[in-house]
Each structure stands twice: as C-alpha cells, then as structure tokens.
C-alpha cells in the first residue's frame, strides 16, 4: 500500500485532508508539531482525529522553545479579535515566520525515511488570512526544492506534495469532511488557547462563517 505523511494540526482543514488522503487509499502517517503555540489544545484534537480516522503512526514532535517567535500564536503579541472577514487585508500578527517551510521540510524528511510517496498539507489560498506560506507559489517552489534535495527526487521518484483543499472555500471543506465522516466536534481551530473556542479570533470567524454557509451548527463549543 502506498504511504503518505499528513501534517495534522488538529484543526478543521488538516483533519479533512487526513480523511481525503485515506479516501485515496494511502496508508497514513500523521505528523503533529508542538512549536510553542498558545493554542496547544489542538494537539489533543490531533490525537482524537488520528484515532478517529485511523493512522498507521502518529508522531508528535516538540520543537525547541523559542525556535518560533514574532507571532501572537507564540505569545509575542495579542491575538487579534472581532475583525471583519470581508475586510481582512495584509499579513496578520498570527503569522508564524516560515512555519510551513519548516513543517514541510520535517514531513518530507520523514516521508523519505519511510519511503512514502506523498506529503499532504491542509493549506488553503482562498481564505488563508494573508499567510505567504499558504500560497500556491510557495508550494510549487518548495516542491521543486525538495525534489532536488532528496534521494527519491534524484532517482526520479520525487515525493508528491499534495494540497487537496488549496482552492476550496471553508464551506466546501466542511462539506467534503462531512461526506468523509469527519466529526468536527473533535477538531480545534481557536487561536486564543482557552478551554472553549473564543468565537472572535480570525480562525474562529472563518470556521463559524463556513458552518453558517453550509447551513449547520458548528459542533465545537464556544464561549458565550
């Protein structure tokens, strides 16, 4: 059976991508990264989703403290709240410098070590909050670089970098996940790090708007 490494944060997008990779017949190896994020509650969700979907192995990698900084997600400033989705412009302070570049490099290394054919990542360009490392241009550039940097690439069998939801809206992602049987009550999206989702940060707003567009209630519990 062909293998795939899936970057799994425990959020709505990556959980959907995990289910999509399974639907394609891949044997799944999930990689979750603890990088000092204030919303480390998502690690529990990643474990729950990995168990629910079914993976061959789930690795949780802890990066050294302080490796990532300069982001509100790593406590360097306040997480923005109550922004109007349709008016969001620029790169918000929730951007973690080059995070996906680092995460994809780790995923490719593991993938080559286990002779996996693909790496899946749940980036989406349609409502990506202004993050430069979620754009198709970045994915294409990284794909070329990793094919040059790996033994598989040199031998003509490069690892396939897969971004199956990159052109999908949040509502379309939710519909796909529902079709695949994802329990979105197990997932976590909120950036603020509370016991319940705040409902006010950017990712909560994207998520709640997606469920509204689908016409169903979000099963995640929010603060009043």
Number of helices: 7
Tell me about the largest β-sheet.
5 strands, parallel
Low-confidence region ranges:
none
Q: How many independent structural domains?
A: 1
Overall geometric form: globular
CATH class: Alpha Beta
Helix percent band = 25-40%
What Rg do the Cα atoms give? Answer: 17 Å
**Percent of residues in beta strands?**
5-15%
Termini distance? Answer: 46 Å
Q: Please, could you describe this protein's structure?
A:
- The protein has seven helices and five strands.
- It has 224 residues and is of the alpha/beta class.
- It has one domain: HUPs (Rossmann fold), CATH 3.40.50.
- The protein has a five-stranded parallel β-sheet with strand order 3-2-1-4-5, sandwiched between helices.
- Helix 1 links the parallel strand 1 (3-7) and strand 2 (27-34).
- Helix 1 crosses helix 6.
- The longest helix has 15 residues, at 99-113.
What distinguishing features does this structure have?
single chain, 224 residues, alpha/beta, Rossmann fold, 7 helices, 5 strands
């Amino acid at each position: 059976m062909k293998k795939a490494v899936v970057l799994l944060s425990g959020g709505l997008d990556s959980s959907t991508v995990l289910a999509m990779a399974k639907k394609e017949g891949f044997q799944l190896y999930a990689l979750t990264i603890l990088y000092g994020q204030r919303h480390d509650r998502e690690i529990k969700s990643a474990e729950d989703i990995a168990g629910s979907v079914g993976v061959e192995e789930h690795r949780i990698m802890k990066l050294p403290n302080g490796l990532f900084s300069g982001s509100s997600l790593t406590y360097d400033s306040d997480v923005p709240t109550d922004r109007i989705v349709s008016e969001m412009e620029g790169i918000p302070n929730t951007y973690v410098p080059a995070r996906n570049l680092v995460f994809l490099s780790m995923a490719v290394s593991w993938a080559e070590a286990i002779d996996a054919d693909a790496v899946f990542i749940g980036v989406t360009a349609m409502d990506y909050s202004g993050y430069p490392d979620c754009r198709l241009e970045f994915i294409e550039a990284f794909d070329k670089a990793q094919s040059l940097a790996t033994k598989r690439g040199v031998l003509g069998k490069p690892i396939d970098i897969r971004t199956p939801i990159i052109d999908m809206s949040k509502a379309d992602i939710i519909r796909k996940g529902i079709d695949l049987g994802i329990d979105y009550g197990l997932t976590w999206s909120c950036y603020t790090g509370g016991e319940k989702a705040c409902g006010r940060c950017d990712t909560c707003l994207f998520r709640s708007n997606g469920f509204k567009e689908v016409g169903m209630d979000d099963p995640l519990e929010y603060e009043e």
